[in-house]
Amino acid sequence: MEKLPDNVKGYPKLSVLFGKFPHVACYRKFSSLAHRILLYDQARITYLESYLHELEKADSVSQDDNRRRYAMDWTYLEGLHGEGQGMQRYLVGKIRAALSEYYDLLLKHKAVTAIPQPLDCDRRFLQEWLVHQDGNDVSLQGRDAAAYGTMENPESFAEDLAVGMARADAGPFLNWIVDSFTSFFHRQIVERFPRLKIKQMASQDNVIAYNGSTVRIASVFATSIPSLILCSSIAILYSVNSTPKRLGLLACFCIIYSICLGYFSRPQGGEIFSSVTTYAALAVVFVAASLPSGNGTATA
């Protein structure tokens, strides 16, 4: 991909960034506007439907024999007997075209609605790039610039942003760890020790993207934290001799474990329940195995 001249700011330079990093490329879905158009089309079709019912009733009691047969013989409605097409046939054609357009828009809207939003870290990166890229302000200046928010008010971005090629959303905690670790790694290690041969993928406009191995290190670190919580809970339960205290701690650990599951990943409600019950069952077995035996000694 060729680098655009530095003086070509705005849409051209932003499109190059989107092409190089598809997970940053985000656009508005215009959800409210799409719903408004759907409501307008729904109202129009409802009116045509009501008008069709009125015509059907009027034609069914008409003095014209052909018109009375519209509801019983399609060939008369289609005008195949030389009398030509009537108003009812014309209205049916308009309804067919309106329904086709309405269904097409409805299905497209459903598909667009399913497109995920950009991750918070990618959105923040885009906001910083628009303002600080090469030390200059290359942000958009039209009304559409409000879609991406500003550094002064980063939460002012449009709520219906869609990203074409979203990165895997592993959960808020893992995303935060990866984002924080990558930023810390770049500023505290790469920039301070430039002689280190750190594998990275350099892009245009001084944008640095680290390869998958660097990101995987952060992912491994983040996924190891839940394991540490489980191991520490077993160690704490082992160090407590009182059975009531163990059971109370076990209940607390189950609550903490369920909260961590929802924060560390994106499980469904049934998956959280299944995982917590499995953890509780194993912990109960551990507590029961370490209870004092009948002769006053603890079992192994």
TrEMBL record:
InterPro entries documented for this protein: DUF6594
Source organism superkingdom: Eukaryota
Transmembrane regions listed in the UniProt entry: 217-240, 247-266, 272-291
Keyword Membrane included in the entry's annotation: yes
Residue span(s) of domain DUF6594: 11-284
Statement: the UniProt record of this protein carries the keyword Transmembrane: yes
A Pfam family recorded for this sequence: DUF6594
Alphabetically ordered keywords of this record: Membrane, Transmembrane, Transmembrane helix
Name of the protein in question: DUF6594 domain-containing protein
